[in-house]
Write a structure and sequence with these properties.
Helix content: 40-55%
CATH class of the largest domain: Alpha Beta
Number of strands: 14
Largest sheet: 5 strands, parallel
Number of domains: 2
Order of helices and strands: HEHEHEHEEHEHEHEHEHEHHHEEEE
Radius of gyration: 29 Å
Strand content: 15-25%
Number of helices: 12
Structural class: alpha/beta
Shape: globular
């Protein structure tokens, strides 16, 4: 019985063998075709999926004057890129989070941008503390970050995935102290706040002064954002050999220093840093600001730059577009975001790819980029690449920034 059943099965198989083989071949081709179609659809979805740029900025709180113009600039130029067809045919999408100045909030936002929003790159943050706090996350995720905060510590030592578009505090100190040296100033009185900005910049200025042979014969500190700056100024005034005074801080306190400096009758030049390159400083200081010298980013004197200066036309175009959209003049913090998004866009176009590593390498090979803050040439040893003229010395005259380079 069993043997007869086996014999009949063999006969059945031999009879329909060709049919079964043909059926199997058809099934294989259908499966392969389906897989190819799925792969093509997936590739098409990748091509047309929006390119996502994430940002974490100080939109509210004490540093909102830094974050708000940066966000306004990013929104403006993401829209412009999309009007021009996007990047390599992909629409660009901006995802932003307000982190204030809190490092912990910044870390949460960056993790969300990377692992939930699936962004392709990140631009931000506004402050050193918030930005430094996310660097390990950036490194682990292997995602490009173009930082906006001023500090040199973000790129020194060089971090593989971290780039920067803004000038450094050290560059500001170098500009100030070289101006002093050129004017024959050999001894200096220093008065600084205790904020992170003031402490970092002060350290750089002290180091550069030593290199240039300028003696700091008085070094006073005060609590940032205070009005109580008279006593440290009085102590500086007792030092008869002081040939200039340098105030290092940002916010409202430098305006109080400026006003008290005039009231006390100092007869030496007063220097401020890039931290006060704002209209708010001019308004708070009033006539006391007359004659104050400081380094400013080029955007502060865009209309007064030489016509031969390669960044003049770029700045004027940016200012016109920003004012037309937001009805207010952009600040230097907006110009940092301008350079950041254009550096990223340029890297994608040169890489002809959306792969992170290829974009990272293209960023690192940036050269002859003419941006809002100067000429840029990056390398594997320099993830900023700004030329020395990224700051311009000015003197305040009749409430205006007047170039004195």
């Amino acid at each position: 019985m069993v043997i007869n059943l086996i014999i009949k099965m063999q006969e059945y198989f031999l009879k329909y063998k060709r049919f079964l083989y043909s059926f199997l071949v058809i099934i294989i081709f259908v499966v392969i075709g389906t897989l190819r179609q799925s792969t093509t659809v997936l590739a098409q979805e990748t091509d047309f999926k929006p390119l996502r740029i994430g940002t974490f900025l100080s939109i509210t709180g004490q540093a909102s004057f830094i974050g708000a113009p940066a966000l306004a600039t990013l929104k403006l130029y993401v829209n412009l890129l999309n009007l021009q067809g996007g990047l390599l045919g992909r629409k660009v999408e901006l995802i932003d989070y307000d982190v204030g100045t809190d490092p912990r909030t910044a870390q949460i936002a960056v993790r969300r941008l990377i692992y939930f929003d699936k962004v392709d790159a990140i631009i931000g943050g506004s402050t050193l503390g918030a930005t430094m706090s996310v660097l390990p996350i950036i490194s682990d995720a292997k995602i490009p970050l173009i930082a906006l905060a001023n500090s040199r510590e973000l790129i020194n030592p060089v971090r593989k995935w971290v780039f920067k578009s803004s000038q450094t505090h050290r560059m500001a100190c170098n500009t100030i102290l070289n101006d002093m040296q050129g004017r024959g100033i050999e001894s200096l009185g220093l008065i600084s706040g205790d904020s992170g900005f003031a402490s970092t910049t002060r350290a750089h200025c002290i180091e550069i002064a030593k290199i240039l042979g300028i003696s700091i014969i008085s070094d006073e500190r005060y609590r940032s954002q205070t009005r109580n700056v008279v006593e440290p100024l009085k102590r500086i005034k007792t030092k008869l050999k002081v040939q200039a005074v340098l105030n290092i801080d940002f916010g409202s306190s430098p305006a109080y220093v400026t006003r008290e400096f005039r009231k006390l009758g100092f007869d030496v030049p007063l220097y401020q840093t890039h931290g006060v390159a704002t209209l708010n400083y001019l308004d708070l200081s009033g006539v006391a600001a007359e004659g104050v010298k400081l380094p400013v980013p080029p955007i502060m004197i865009a209309e007064k730059l030489d016509d031969e200066d390669p960044i003049k036309s770029i700045l004027l175009s940016y200012i016109k577009l920003y004012e037309g959209r937001w009805e207010v003049r952009p600040s230097v913090y907006g110009s940092y975001a301008f350079d950041a998004i254009y550096l990223y866009a340029s890297a994608i176009r040169r890489a002809r790819s959306f792969e992170r590593e290829k974009i990272r390498k293209a960023l690192e090979r940036t050269e002859n980029y003419v941006g809002a803050n100067g000429l840029v040439k990056m390398s594997s040893e320099d993830h900023l690449g700004l030329y020395s003229k990224a700051f311009r010395m000015v003197e305040i005259r009749d409430g205006e920034w007047v170039p004195i380079d």
